[in-house]
Amino acid sequence: MNYNIALLRGDGIGPEIVDSAVRVLEKVGEKFGHTFRFTPYLIGGCAIDACGEPLPKETVEGCLAADSVLLGAVGGPKWDTLPGNMRPEKALLGIRAAMGLFTNLRPAKLYPALASECPLRADIVANGFDLMIVRELTGGIYFGERGMREGKYGEEAYDTECYSRMEIERIGRVAFETARKRGKKLCSIDKANVLDTSRLWRKIMHELTEEYPDVTLSDMLVDNAAMQLVRNPAQFDVIVTSNMFGDILSDEASQITGSIGMLPSASLGETTRGLYEPIHGSAPDIAGKHLANPIATILSAAMMLLHSFGLAAEHDAIVNAVDAVLNAGLRTADLAHGAPALSTEEMTDAILERI
Ligand code: NAD
Fold first, then answer.
1. Which of 306, 251, 311 minimizes the C-alpha distance to 274?
2. I want to staple 55 with a disulfide (CB 3.0 to 4.6 A). Which of 10, 49, 80, 94 is the partner?
3. Pick the catalytic residue: 49, 80, 196, 223?
4. From the alpha carbon of 294, which atom of ligand 1 is closest?
């Protein structure tokens, strides 16, 4: 099969890590008989420098014409003083909106070989953990009516949370489908003891169980979920939650893996075209020094193979190669704690050898 992939390298370590992922995809293509065609587009600070805006029209058009999109990271001190709508990070919201991406998939996995990176007590994570957070991305309080007004006690501000049946059903279906492909356990997280949006959310999640009898659904209040993630993260398989709760819980989940350079993400919409990117930023402190860990971006490319192209064996080949590299004790500097470490390119070579 032939696949067209738009590459948004971005700023800082973005070009280095995206190029690593491209090499891995080329190797997978060779091995499994696929052709991946890559077309680069500008985004973020490099787009501001070249075109005067963080998200040029050609970039949006190129992403919409591609089969899928791989993004490095944007931003850096050079552009930090620009006004809000001219900041590189503005391009991220713009491209997600233009592509209609309403789902964010954030896996958080503790690799047995990296157990010592985990900030939790060893006995809590003795068996590791491997969970997936499905976060609603385009609704809820971040997009609701908001404003400032004069109230009884003077100046006040308000934000409103609103979720429609359509929005809850479509993120619910993504979550049930995701659980179906994994351990068939879905935990829906809400605040149904207080919020009406959560009560509708919970009702609809339970209605969906009729369509997915093979998936076991449970509910958890968000305050309890924040505790359970650090008390016993291995109890979770797939979590589905609203935009704001997902924003907070997915960062908590990433922190308990202890390795920011390892975590991929996917944002998906109605079509198979998605936006795949590492969860970390552009790491300007190490840009150009060959120190970046390319694994989060390589695993983002693996997610693309699975979620956009349905290539499960190809996805597994990458994931297994990453596991093998870690089990062999190979580390980039972020995980080496001063011991000799591989450069970005050497880590990529080590993964290529194991595909
Ligand atoms: P960061 O994630 O870029 O870096 C945090 C720390 O983690 C740094 O010490 C960095 O060196 C390290 N790090 C991150 N990724 C790494 C990797 N792959 N390998 C090794 N070490 C890695 O976060 P920050 O420093 O807060 O932000 C830097 C810039 O990135 C800012 O301009 C910020 O706005 C931007 N940012 C962009 C995105 C995105 O593009 N999606 C996300 C977050 C931050």
1. 306
2. 94
3. 223
4. 18
